[in-house]
Design goal:
0% helix, 142 residues, mainly beta
Length: 142
């Protein structure tokens, strides 16, 4: 469980805003209303971001809440890459979200939210912690 929150007002997101949560850096760069990838007749809000994540992203679970506290599932979309990571030491370095060189941010697709609300709160409900310490430990199983 995590519970880290990022709250922002989309109309005031005129320049990137950076947030630090559990050693992960998330830089929000914009919001937009896009056609749903699930249902062509509807729209959903996309939050564009870049990130440097110390923790794993594969099993994270995020939720979004609008101004009325309605809860929405989030689907993650975009590229990610290992940064400053050695082939034999994947625990060091970061996971970069989005591609700054190609100006292709990562996106949180807020499923079912069909208009941009006054305020959005992103909540990371589950985080897959990545420990970089070279721990030499074992568990005795009998």
């Amino acid at each position: 469980m995590d519970g880290s929150r990022i709250s922002f007002k989309p109309s005031e997101l005129t320049k990137p805003e950076t947030y630090k949560i559990l050693n992960d850096t998330v830089e929000l760069v914009g919001t937009s209303l896009e056609k749903s990838q699930i249902d062509d007749s509807s729209y959903e809000v996309a939050v564009s971001l870049y990130g440097e994540m110390e923790n794993e992203i594969g099993f994270e679970q995020w939720k979004a809440h609008d101004s009325t506290r309605q809860s929405y599932d989030i689907s993650m979309r975009g590229s990610y890459a290992l940064i400053n990571t050695l082939a034999d030491s994947w625990r060091n370095g970061f996971i970069g979200l989005g591609d700054r060189n190609m100006q292709q941010p990562f996106e949180f697709q807020i499923l079912g939210l069909d208009q941009i609300p006054e305020e959005i709160t992103l909540v990371r409900e589950v985080v897959n912690k990545r420990y970089s310490d070279d721990l030499d430990w074992s568990v005795l199983i009998e």
